[in-house]
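chain below, 196 aa
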Amino acid sequence: MDYPIPYHLKKIFNVTSCEGNDLQGKIVCECGCDRFTVMQNEKGDDYSVGLMINGICARCGEYHVIFDESEHGWNGFVNRSIDRRASGRNQLRRNVSKIESTVPNEAAAETLPTIIDRENDVNLTRLCCEGCGSEILSIELDLEVEDREQFIEETVSVFPDRVSPDDYVNAFNWIVVNVTCSECGETFEWVNMELS
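prediction:
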C-alpha cells in the first residue's frame, strides 16, 4: 500500500497502522536495524529554534533526520514559523555525517560527543532511557497527516508558489514520538506536539 509518508521519512518509516489520516509505525534504518542513538536539541523558550530529532543507526552509523520543526509539519513546511537557520542546520548535518562514518556499532555509538552548531548555538545531545540510562533506543512515530483535499483547498490555493497538492504529506498536523529502550524495554512518550 502507498501510505502518505512525509518525503524525508519515505525510506525509514515502517508503517504498522493506518487509520484515515493517522499513521503509526517504527523508524527502521535502510540496513534493517531499528535501534538508534537519538540526538535532540533543547527547544528555545522564544520558539525561535524548533525541536530537532535525529537518529544515528546503532548498526551501520547512518544519520537520519527524524524531525526538524523548522522544516517538517505544517508550521515548518508551509507556515515557516520557525527560523530555519538553514546554513547552520546544513553544517550541523555535515558535521554529524563525519561523526557517523566512525560509528560502526553500538559500543562506538556510546562515545559520540555532544554535537554543537556554534554558529547558531544549537546543541544536540543524546536522549537516554528514563529507566536505566541506556542511549540505544527504538523510535515509534504517530503522525496525523493533512487531508489531501483540505490541503489543496486551504493551503495550495493560498501558497501556490510554495506548495503543490502532493506536498500534503509533508504538512502533517501532529507528531507523537515514543521511544523504547533496547536495554530494559521501557517505553515512554517523549514528544506529543501539534504542528498546525
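The chain has four helices and ten strands. The helical segments are 73-79, 86-100, 106-109, 148-156.
thats it, cya
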